[in-house]
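Re: weekly structure request thread

Next one in the queue (592 aa):
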Amino acid sequence: MGKIAITDLTLRDAHQSLLATRMLTSDMLPVAPRMDAAGFWSLEVWGGATFDSCIRFLNEDPWERLRALRAAIPSTRLQMLLRGQNLLGYRHYADDVVEAFVAHAATCGIDVFRVFDALNDPRNLATAMRAVKKAGKHSQAAISYAVSPVHTIESYVELAAAMRDMGADSICVKDMAGLLTPFAAAELVAGIKRRTELPVCVHSHATTGMSVATLLKAAEAGADILDTVISSMSMGTSHSPTEALVEMLRGTPLDTGLDVKSLNEVAAYFRDVRKKYRAYESSFLGADARILVSQVPGGMLSNLESQLREQNALDRIDAVLEEIAVVQRDFGYPPLVTPTSQIVGTQAVVNVLMGRYKQLTTESRNLLAGLYGATPAKPSGELVRQALKELGRDQPVTARPADSIPAEMSKLEGDLRRETGNANPSAEDVLTYAMFPQVALKFFSERSKGPAAIQAPRENEAPAAQPQSGRMSLAVDGTLYDVTCEDTSGDSVKITVAGRPYTVKFSPASEGATEKQPAPGPDAESVLAPMPGTVIKLLKSDGDTVLENEGILVLEALKMQMEIRSRSAGRIRFAVRVNEHVKAQALLAEVS
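Done, posted below.
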C-alpha cells in the first residue's frame, strides 16, 4: 500500500448525475485554477453525456469546452470517459472514426482516456486503446461492474488480465450504480493487483449509500486511485465527497496529501453554482436501496426522471425500476452503463407505457442481434427472434461488430457537406456530426447564438403554464422549471414553482391558436405517436403503398429510436415532417 491518488469527477460525472449534465463551461472556468492547484491525480472533464448535452441543450461546442479547460488547467491531467467502439454516441463506429476521434481529443487536451465497453467485450476496446497508445496518452481500461448470476470476481479479474495484455496502463473498476460492496471491492482490487500488477482505480457512485465504505476498503486492499467529487456536488446519485476521504486517510500510509482548506474553497464555489441549476436537480438525493435491484447507474436516474416527466408518467417510476431488472435479464444481463443503461432503461419505459415488448426500440433490436457485441449471458431466444425478424436478418452477429462497418469518415464528411452546404467542414464538426447527426445539424445552425442562458427562477416570477393538473417540466427561454398544478378551476390556475405558490390567469385563446391536427378520412387508420419525440426519418413518401406491419417512420424518443409501423395496408399520407417534435398521441400519418 502507498499514498492514495484522487481523480476528481466534479466537472463531468457529478453534474451529469445530479444536474442532468446541464452545467455551462462558464460556471467551470472561474474555479478551474483552484482545482488545478489542489493536487489531484487527474480531473475528469469530458465524455459521458457532456458532449451530447453541450450540443443538445447548452448550445456549446464541446471541443471549445475542452480547449478552454485545458488552458485553465495547465498542470493537472485531464481525463475523459470513452465508450470504446461507441465513442460518445449510441452505436458502433468504424475504426477510422474511433482513431480520428481519439487522436483529436488528445490534441485538444485529454491526457487520460478511461475506455470501457458496456458489455465488457474486449473486442470493443481494442481499437480505442490502440489509438490512445498511438497518441502517447494514458490508457485506463475500465471494467463495467454489475451484479448478476453470470458476473463473478474471477471473471472480472480475468477481464483485467485481458485488458493488461491489450496495453492498459491502469485498470478502473467502474461501479456506476453503487452496487460494489466494501468487502467485494477489497477482494476484487486485491485480485486484480495480484493478476495484473497494474495501478487500480475504483469508481463507485453513492446511490445506494455504500460508496465511502467501499472506497475505504478498496484503498486498504491496494487501490492506487479513488474517484471522488467535491463535497457540495457529492452523494445522492453522485459520488463520495473528496474532503471526507482525504480526512479519513490523513496521517496514515495512504494519506492523499491534499489540502482540505483549498478543497473547502472549491466546495464553497460549487455550493453557490449548484443553486443556479436547481430546476434540474434529481430528487434522488439520499440513499436508494431500490437500486440494489434495478441496478440503475447514478447518471441515469436524473435522466430517467426527466424522461418520465416528459411522458406525464413520473408516478410510474417504481414500475419502471422494477421493469428494468426484467429487461436486463431478458437482454442477457448487460451491465447498465451507457449505452446499455439507456437501451435497457428506455425499453423498460416503453414496456410500462405500451406493454411488455409490444415495441422494441431500434437499439434494443441491435443489442439482441449482437450488433453491440457479446452479452454476458444469452438473451431471450424469443426476443432475439423478434429482433432479427424486425431487422430483416437471419442470424445474430457473432464476429467483432465493427468488422462489418466500412471506413466512414469520408462518407460522414460528404454527408455533412450535403446537409449544411459547407464545402469545407472542420474535422471537429465532422466528428460531432458522427456522434449525433440530427442534433449536430440543429446545433450548427444555432451555434452562433452562443451558450444557452440558464438561471434560477427570479423572485415572484413564474413561467406561464397550461391549465392541467399534476406535475410537469416547463422550458422557458432555455430554463427548465418544475411546475405543480394544484387547481385548474375557472380562468386561472394555482401552481407551485420551486416551492413558491403563484396564481396565473389565462386569457381566452384566439381562434386558431390551438394546435390542430388533420381529421382522419373515412376508413383511414390513424397512426399516432406512442410517446413524445422527434421525427428523424420518413421511411416512405406521401402516396406510397405500405404493407401491414411495415415501417413508415423513425421517431426519436428518450434518446433512443423506434420504428413506427402501420397496422394495416394501404396508401399513406403523412401529417408530420422530419425534425418535427410531436406530443404523445399526435397524428403521424393516415393509411387508407
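The CA atoms of residues 185 and 218 lie 5 Å apart. The first helix runs from residue 10 to 18.
Next request, please.
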